[in-house]
């Protein structure tokens, strides 16, 4: 509470710092992702809480008053202190819980994560482990919300994720390949091919899929042409899903061609229930990546990250 027991909204402090930096109400409101009228009300509410004007609105650009200049470093310290307190509280919680929290895309939670985790546990005592399996977008959300310490997903340099853009620490744990496959026909021959004259039925990834993001970003091969066609509606997309595991099931049912990670379909390719629907020119190498929180983590999490730097991989 402030003067007269009026409440103080912490967002006003962030708005103040944004306006002090930009000197322009419109740009500051845009940076804070709120409408300018609401932003202006926040600044006025803060000034009412303090009891004096903090900005000289007649100046161009908008300038801090003497009172604004005096309070500016103090508000920076307040927000920095609150952020430090929040981080320390989360670290304390992690230490008390002594658990590791992973988010992994559906396909890697089935194909890569179990063996990799067993390798880690052979080297370290990790304690309790929580794993959430979802789409790439949902896994990124969990990391950005600080609800997990690690994210395991596929990635490629041509398709940066939100974690890449925010410069979250990342290590490459392994390699995989996206390849077009389909089920054979009743005679055991290839049912569809990527090069056939009529567009083959395609089983596509949705917008929230990390593998779909990689396919859409590819721009230097015939593989990209299929992805662009699928996005524009020119291709014969008959089914769309978030997860490679569901697309695999539809491919096995003979519904069309799907680009699937080879790590997911090794057994099916070996027994002939799935077949390559295009040559190597239609395949794409991708990485298996592990992202971590940039802030300090519990000792078990830090020790695991150190072990990944030492190059420990599934055997």
Summarize the structure.
The protein has 315 residues and is an alpha/beta fold.
What would your notes on this structure say?
The chain is α/β, with parallel strands linked by helices and 315 residues long. The chain folds into 2 domains: 92 residues, Winged helix-like DNA-binding domain superfamily/Winged helix DNA-binding domain (Arc Repressor Mutant, subunit A); 212 residues, D-Maltodextrin-Binding Protein, domain 2, CATH 3.40.190.290. The chain contains 13 helices and 11 strands. Strands 3, 4, 5, 6, 7, 8, 9, 10 and 11 form a 9-stranded mixed β-sheet that branches. Strands 1-2 form a two-stranded antiparallel ribbon. Helix 1 crosses helix 3.
Rounded mean pLDDT score: 87
What gap, in angstroms, lies between the N and C termini?
Answer: 59 Å
Backbone CA Rg: 26 Å
Run of helices and strands: HHHEEHEHHEHEHEEHHEHEHEEH
CATH class of the largest domain: Alpha Beta
Q: How would you describe the shape?
A: elongated
Strand content: 15-25%
Structural class comes to alpha/beta
CATH fold naming of the largest domain: D-Maltodextrin-Binding Protein, domain 2
Number of structural domains: 2
Number of strands: 11
CATH architectural name of the largest domain: 3-Layer(aba) Sandwich
Helical content, roughly?
40-55%
Number of helices: 13
Major sheet attributes: 9 strands, mixed
Which residues form runs of ≥5 with pLDDT under 50? 219-225, 227-234
């Amino acid at each position: 509470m402030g003067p007269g027991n009026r409440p103080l909204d912490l967002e006003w402090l962030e708005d103040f710092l944004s306006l002090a930096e930009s000197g322009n109400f419109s740009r500051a409101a845009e940076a804070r992702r709120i409408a300018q009228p609401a932003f202006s009300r926040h600044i006025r509410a803060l000034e009412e809480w303090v009891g004096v004007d903090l900005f000289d609105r007649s100046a161009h650009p908008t300038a801090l008053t003497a009172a604004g200049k005096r309070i500016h470093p103090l508000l920076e310290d307040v927000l920095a202190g609150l952020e430090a307190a929040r981080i320390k509280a989360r670290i304390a919680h992690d230490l008390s819980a002594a658990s590791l929290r992973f988010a992994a895309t559906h396909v890697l939670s089935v194909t890569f994560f179990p063996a990799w985790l067993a390798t880690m546990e052979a080297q370290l005592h990790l304690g309790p482990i929580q794993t959430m399996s979802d789409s790439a977008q949902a896994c990124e959300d969990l990391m950005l919300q600080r609800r997990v310490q690690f994210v395991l997903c596929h990635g490629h340099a041509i398709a940066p994720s939100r974690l890449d853009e925010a410069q979250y620490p990342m290590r490459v744990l392994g390699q995989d390949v996206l390849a077009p496959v389909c089920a054979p026909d009743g005679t055991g021959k290839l049912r569809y091919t990527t090069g056939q004259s009529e567009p083959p039925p395609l089983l596509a990834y949705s917008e929230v899929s990390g593998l779909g993001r990689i396919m859409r970003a590819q721009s230097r091969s015939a593989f990209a042409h299929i992805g662009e066609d699928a996005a524009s509606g020119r291709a014969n997309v008959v089914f769309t899903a978030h997860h490679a595991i569901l697309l695999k099931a539809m491919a096995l049912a003979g519904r069309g061609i799907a680009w699937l990670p080879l790590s997911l379909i090794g057994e099916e390719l070996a027994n002939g229930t799935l077949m390559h629907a295009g040559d190597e020119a239609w395949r794409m190498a991708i990485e298996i990546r592990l992202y971590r929180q940039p802030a300090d983590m519990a000792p078990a999490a830090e020790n695991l990250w150190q072990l990944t730097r030492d190059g420990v991989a599934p055997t």
